[in-house]
Design goal:
Order of helices and strands: EHHHHHHEHEHHE
Radius of gyration: 18 Å
Shape: elongated
Oligomer: single chain
Number of helices: 9
Largest sheet: 4 strands, antiparallel
Length: 206
Amino acid sequence: MSSSLSVYLLDVAATRALVGSRDDQLLEVIRDNFGDDLARDDDYFSHEIEQGAPTAYEALHAVVHGGPFSEDKEHAFQYGYAYKRLCSLTGSFLDNDCFTPHRGDWLSVVDQGLNALGITAVSVEDFSYGDLPAPLPNTFTPGCGEWTPDHIAQALEQFEATKRAVDESGQAPPLEPEVVEAVMQCLGWMRDAVGRPGYGVIGFRS
């Protein structure tokens, strides 16, 4: 079974602040302009909705209003996807062809490549965890993680330090070509973010 990453460039703090914002105007805009997307998701999760899971719009409403949330943990995935929808509508989708689809421990392998280049401030495997903003309930799928502006700046500094060391020694860490390509894609995400104050990356694994 394969997984995928959806990665967005956005203002991390502003996006997290949408949770519990009670912004009914935002909800109205989404319902009016993306009703077909909401209906498509409801069709995909029709069985779960029949079992009591919230619809896509109900989950979105709960996220924006900070609750109430279903007490059934099996339904928590809908709130994760609702937050992902907010990220997709307020952020810019980043190229992720090195990660979609992926199998097995690929994210961990890419992290090892980042580490080999001295980059420890960020991790793609973090996108696998349920790090949703409070008070959203935890869920395994979709996984969620974020790279804050500070972490991105630190990671790029770490990479530049490694480049200087390689230039002096003439020896680069031995990495497989596909790992190098994935690491370069991660660096591209970070470079897109670093020039925009407050911007970072939020990613989802599903």
